[in-house]
Amino acid sequence: MTQRTALREELLVAAPGRVRFEEPMRLHTSFHIGGPAEIWAEPQDPEELRRLLGIAAEAAIPVTMVGGGANLLVRDEGIPGLVVHLSGPGFQTFRRTEEGVVAGAALPLEWLIRRAQEAGLSGVEFLAGVPGHVGGAVRMNAGTHDDEGEFHHFGDCIHSIQVMDLDGQVRLLPAEAIGFAYRSTNLNGRIVLSATLKLSRDDPRAIAQRVQRLWAFKKKTQDWSAPSVGCIFKNPPEKSAGWMIDQAGLKGYQVGGAMISTRHANFMLNSGNARAADLFSLIEEARARVLQKYGVKLELEVQVLP
Length: 306
Ligand SMILES: Cc1cc2nc3c(=O)[nH]c(=O)nc-3n(C[C@H](O)[C@H](O)[C@H](O)COP(=O)(O)OP(=O)(O)OC[C@H]3O[C@@H](n4cnc5c(N)ncnc54)[C@H](O)[C@@H]3O)c2cc1C
Prior knowledge:
This protein is an alpha+beta fold. It has three domains: 3-84, Uridine Diphospho-n-acetylenolpyruvylglucosamine Reductase, domain 2, CATH 3.30.43; 91-221, 2-Layer Sandwich (Uridine Diphospho-n-acetylenolpyruvylglucosamine Reductase, domain 3); 241-305, Uridine Diphospho-n-acetylenolpyruvylglucosamine Reductase, domain 1, CATH 3.90.78. 28% of the residues lie in helices and 24% in strands. It is globular, with a radius of gyration of 20 Å.
């Protein structure tokens, strides 16, 4: 038996029915783009996750996390090693404790908002219209303007998080230890298992109204007409990335099946059968033109895997 075959058999035993090989990543990304994950695993609880990480460490293969896939650009060549996608009720909890609500990493943000609203708890409704899961939103410190121009970050409502390190150790990190900044944290190499959120009491109907208003605002200001990852670039301090790409004359610019949105120039769309390579060409073109016109180097917000 080859080493790779032995590894595959070990993984299948560690998480029966929840490991697949050569899994197309286009099925797991909002872009619908990406080559295969060599090993795709959907652990249902921390024990199963720890077993998988132990096997990966022993075989010295890389481990990559995928949440809702709403901020990923996966290369056409795919992702080598183990790709972990937490799933199942064990990672989708919504539990009230003295410190706050404990939300599982695999809980979709839409469910989080709905559960909080039903419980009369306010503080996460600003995430309405931001796709993804709690774990990915923590890692990215997801954030957005509301319809009154105020900026909110997920990090602002986090009390603490539970993480598992790649050696299987579980730790509780207070918010101050996470290094929350604009679309970034210091969580590389750590797996978010859950987040404890500071929420405040409010009337469920008032929360529902705010959620509806924010959804309408997102639909008006963003482009949801084709698969995307939301904004491709971070906004530099000078001006918004979308405004500069627009001024550089790139709205509607296409490479293969990928296109810069005609509505919001920081959105790149999979308008057909786009490959990751098409997106990289668009990204390079936008960067080059904005650098030439404004002297600003655009930094990616989307996470490129691997
Ligand atoms: C139409 C559209 C609109 C959007 N609008 C916004 C917006 O307004 N504001 C905003 O901030 N974002 C926006 N986004 C981007 C996206 O919704 C956020 O970045 C979201 O937080 C991604 O969560 P995810 O679970 O999909 O993470 P993924 O895309 O799966 O992963 C993102 C990163 O987190 C890591 N990761 C995932 N899960 C874990 C985990 N459990 N532990 C550790 N690391 C993990 C991944 O390795 C990767 O580095 C938008 C996307 C789309 C498609």
